Known about the structure:
The chain is mostly helical. The chain has one domain (3-182). The chain contains 9 helices and no strands. The protein has helices at residues 3-13, 17-36, 43-52, 66-74, 79-87, 101-121, 133-140, 151-161, 165-182. Helix 2 runs antiparallel to helix 3 (43-52), helix 3 (43-52) crosses helix 5 and helix 6 (101-121) crosses helix 9 (165-182). It is globular.
Amino acid sequence: MTREEAWELLCEYNQEEFHLRHARTVEQVMRYFAREDGYGGEEEFWGIVGLLHDLDYERYPEQHCVKCREILKARGAEERLIRAVVSHGYGLVSDVRPEHHMEKILYATDELTGLIGAAAAVRPSKSVMDMELKSLRKKFKTPSFAAGCSREVITNGADMLGWSLDELLQRTIFAMREVEKTIGI
C-alpha cells in the first residue's frame, strides 16, 4: 500500500479534522523514529502504519482495532501492516502484543503525541519548539491534564522499549518538533 492509497483509505473512514491531524502527526512521529533508530529503509512503511493506526476509530469507536483488521484485510493489506496497526491497542482493545521495535514505538507514542499536543496548546508560544522535558513531565504527572491520554500506556510503552520515561518523553518532544515543522500541530 502506498502512502497515497493509505491517505485515501483514511479519508474514506475519517472526516473530522482532529482525527486526520492526529493520523498525520503519528505518521510523522513514526517516520522520525524510523530515521533516528536505524530503520530509515522502512520509513515509508512506519509512516503508513502511523497514518492508519486509528483508521476505524472515528466510525467504529466501540470496535476499534477489530474493524481496522477487517478493513485492511479486505483492501489486501499485508499482514505485517495489519498486525502493527492492531498492536497499538494492546491491553485496551487488542490482544496483539507489540513485538517489533516499530510496534513498540507506535504503542508508546500514540497517546504521548496527544499529551504533547495538549501541552503545546497551553504554552504561551503554542509550540513544542520551546517545550522542555521538565514542563512536559509536570503535565504528565497531572492526571486531570489531557485526561484522555493514558499515562499507563505511555509508561508501559517506555518499559517495552527499554527506555526510561524521560527518554521517551524527550525523544518524542524532538519528534513532535519535526512534526510542527512539517505539518504544524
